[in-house]
Amino acid sequence: MSALGPLATRMGDNTLILGHRLSEWCGQAPALEEDIALANTALDLIGQTQMWLGLAAEIAGEGKTADDLAMRRDVWDFRNLLLVERPNVDFAYTTTRQFLFDRWHLPMLDALSRSSEPRVAAIAAKAVKEATYHAERSAELVVALGDGTAESHDRMQAALDALWPYTGEMFIGDDIDAELASEGIAPAPESLRDGWEEAVRTFLADATLSVPDSDFAHRGGRSGARHSEHLGHLLTQMQWLQRAYPDATW
Amino acid sequence: MYAQLVKSEAAEETEQDRAFQERIDRKEKIEPKDWMPEGYRKTLIRQIGQHAHSEIVGQLPEGNWITRAPTLERKAILLAKVQDEAGHGLYLYCAAETLGISRDEMTEMLLDGRMKYSSIFNYPTLTWADMGAVGWLVDGAAIMNQVPLQRTSYGPYARAMVRICKEESFHQRQGFDIMMKMAQGTTAQKKMAQDALDRFWFPSLMMFGPSDKDSVHSAQSMAWKIKMNTNDELRQKFVDQTVPQAEYLGLTVPDPDLRWNEETGHYDFTEPDWSEFMDVIKGNGPCNADRIEARKKAWDDGAWVREGLMAHAEKRRAARVAAQ
């Protein structure tokens, strides 16, 4: 099954890069409770990465491991959404990025937990429990900060406006997706759009935030064709030890 | 030691004070609503607050390596550890709050220098081996102090310590595990491991605070069972435990005068440079300014978030009241 590897890589790269971004917050969050919650979410995502990239490595063969994939690939081999490589900027961007991702991640995992491929279904069944908590938490924060003070509202609106063009990529399928869908391994990306949009609009209305009216979508992350400049810097940091000391085990 | 050099208030001797001391001597736990001398309350706020701040500032030197952890598993373990530390900070702030001070007040006091945190966190973490050294030595020293504090006289503090100690022993094990991998690794990794021990050995010994003969606040705190052992007792215990571990790792403790003393049944060792310790306490350690700056930035940058969350909660509360 040739599309299974790319699916596992896409799922694992999303959680790897987003988990890394969240881990950048360590010790710097606005309150202790948020610090703990961000670390907890990062931890869940890194754990999911181990499972997804573990599967991708198993399919790749040649004795590869999840760590090889995380630490030894260059930018063009990554298959994560552009959304998750966006920088943290501030707590509004970080929260909004998480919310937009979680509202896609949750139904995606839910569908994958019923995958015809048992290895995919098993990983998704485990991850969906964590994603449920992530989605609840990020939606609560979006509502509270959107409907908080004038400043928190404005910051959340600015973050939403900036990140909105990176959401469309989640729902644009390609040949790999078509193959996965036809074999019942994964849902077609387009099929998740309506549910996502309905949930997102409902929470944003509660948050008193306006949905941007542009439907322009940046793309190039999940195909690997054109990542943003930000990803290279992230990898520079994340992969440094493995690159500097290639003979070492840790 | 996370609460080293805590200034203790002098005790007065009224009837009430004597009755209080008798309760402590009977090993009764003092609870938030019980009467307590003002000095006991103030000393505890200082000690628990300093301990809490140490957990929070202590996130920074390890957080420094989370984004550079060499494998997914190491990254996950380090994240879990730093998250535990934030959790410890939370329990400890809650314990201090039972004494009539708020977390926000304590935070302000940390940021403007009225409250301290452990001197150890003013040293930089420069290589991955430092994640091993911090877990092995710093958490090892912390455990040494915290295990007896599970029997401290103030109930909420003692109970927080029970939870914290369970997690700290996991932290120490993971630190030792990193050191082991490094010490058995490539030439470069061994060099990192030795370098980390060289840099962290004496600062770890300083964690227990000044020598007993110079420790002016110990007697009252020990009478109140806020402090359970003297600084020198704990330091000796730490050295005795750690030296064989260093030998096991094949690393050299950076003290030429370190030797086993058959007569005393303990290691003889060189005292740390106390003038360096006093410099660090006064704010002149290698990272004091950076650590406080990082905490200040987090606090200032996060103000709008805390205000936004409070404002929303208030709107929700008002809406509920209006609906009733």
TrEMBL record, chain A:
Q: Which NCBIfam families match?
A: PA_CoA_Oxy3 (TIGR02158)
Instruction: Report the protein name in the record.
Output: 1,2-phenylacetyl-CoA monooxygenase, subunit C
Q: What's the source species for this entry?
A: Jannaschia seosinensis
Gene name linked to the record = paaC
Q: Which SUPFAM superfamilies match?
A: Ferritin-like
Q: Which UniProt keywords apply?
A: Monooxygenase, Oxidoreductase
Q: Where does the secretion signal sit in this chain?
A: none
Q: What's a single GO MF annotation on this record? A: monooxygenase activity
GO CC terms, sorted = cytosol
What Gene3D superfamilies does the record point to? 1.20.1260.10
Please list the GO biological process terms of this entry. phenylacetate catabolic process
UniProtKB/TrEMBL annotation, chain B:
**Coiled-coil region list:** none
Q: Please state what class of enzyme this protein is.
A: oxidoreductase
Q: What are its E.C. numbers?
A: 1.14.13.149
Annotated region Disordered: the residues are: 1-21
**Mind listing the GO biological process terms from this record?**
phenylacetate catabolic process
A GO cellular-component term linked to this record: cytosol
Instruction: Reply yes or no: does the keyword Cytoplasm apply.
Output: no
Q: What keywords were assigned to this record?
A: Oxidoreductase
One GO term in the molecular function aspect is: phenylacetyl-CoA 1,2-epoxidase activity
Protein name listed in UniProt: 1,2-phenylacetyl-CoA epoxidase, subunit A
Give the originating organism: Jannaschia seosinensis
